[in-house]
Write a structure and sequence with these properties.
This protein has helices at residues 6-29, 35-44, 78-93, 101-114, 200-203, 256-262, 275-283, and strands spanning 56-60, 63-64, 127-132, 145-150, 156-165, 168-174, 190-197, 208-212, 226-228, 243-245, 251-253, 272-273. It is an alpha+beta fold. The strands form three sheets. A six-stranded mixed β-sheet has the order 8-4-5-6-7-12. It has a three-stranded antiparallel β-sheet with strand order 2-1-3. Strands 9-10-11 form a three-stranded antiparallel β-sheet, with no helix packed on it. Helix 1 (6-29) runs antiparallel to helix 3 and helix 1 packs across helix 4 (101-114).
């Protein structure tokens, strides 16, 4: 007769998968993972309803845990984060109800102590407590913030805040749906043009600010434009095919190809989209995000 509880079975399986994640780190980075780096990976892979990424703090027996001075988590392939996401999902399934970040932190302590991971900085048995750090309330996005937008079929669309001005907040998008809110940006991954919208879904916690990386801004114009149809304003000459305007009032005429590319030609272009409507449009492949 099996006397092992579902919780203990889930923890044992998770401990085994944590060991595999640690091994993947060692293979890619060529050194052992630290406790802080492993928790950074797991915190980025939690379910989105917890408010990603979850950050953890660690207390050791008899001393304070400082964490790594130079994390190399950013160098990892996405496969490690996908593996971590699947492992956490399976760990939480046994509860049958939504777990909080604090619940997860308690489970992680038990699982790490039960694993055979040899950390680069401490021994697993030294871990006395793992707790989730309450996030600071974000009221406004900052230029360079990376935003994860839930996709209807699961996963996330990824965008970076490229401007905040009189037109609204402009987001530059990257192609594809990501299982975890992390990506290696390349210029070839840029989706369409920056889109202006509001920040209501960020304030509501639906769109999640998951990181800040100003190096991504090089992929986009620092002055994202809105477009005008040629006949939209009486007594204004916007050329044969329309014009583009920056927030500081610079206007340039556009050609037929650009007009068709942004939707001026067929009348589908909108200067600003409400965030709730924009999220639905993204699920339909709007702006080349698919």
């Amino acid at each position: 007769m099996d006397t092992v509880s579902p919780k203990d079975r889930a923890l044992a399986e998770f401990a085994s998968r944590v060991s595999a994640i640690s091994s993947s780190f060692t293979e890619q980075i060529e050194r052992k993972v630290t406790v802080g780096e492993l928790l950074e990976i797991l915190g980025a892979a939690v379910p989105g309803d917890m408010g990603i990424p979850v950050k953890f703090k660690v207390k050791l027996k008899g001393k304070r845990y400082e964490g790594p001075s130079g994390s190399r988590v950013g160098e990892l392939n996405d496969s490690v984060f996908v593996e971590a996401s699947e492992a956490i999902a399976d760990l939480l399934n046994w509860e049958g109800e939504s777990a909080t970040p604090d619940d997860l932190a308690s489970l992680l302590k038990l699982a790490l102590k039960a694993s055979d991971v040899e950390f680069a900085d401490v021994h697993a048995e030294e871990i006395a407590q793992i707790s989730a750090i309450s996030p600071k309330r974000v009221t406004k996005a900052k230029i360079g913030d990376i935003v994860a937008i839930p996709a209807k079929a699961g996963g996330y669309r990824i965008a970076v805040v490229v401007a905040r001005n009189r037109f609204g907040t402009a987001f530059g998008f990257f192609r594809g749906v990501f299982k975890v809110p992390r990506m290696r940006a390349q210029r070839s991954n840029i989706a369409g043009i920056p889109i202006y919208t509001d920040e209501q879904l960020i304030a509501a916690g639906v769109w999640l600010i998951v990181d800040h990386d100003e190096s991504l801004l090089e992929f986009f114009s620092s002055k994202p434009e809105i477009y005008h149809a040629p006949d939209v304003w009486p007594n204004r000459d916007f050329g044969t095919f329309g014009a583009a305007e920056t927030a500081d009032g610079e206007i340039r005429p556009i050609g037929e190809e650009e007009a068709n590319a942004v939707g001026i030609g067929d009348g589908s272009y909108r200067q600003v989209h409400m965030s709730e409507y924009l999220q639905c449009l993204l699920d339909d492949g709007f702006n080349g995000v698919s």
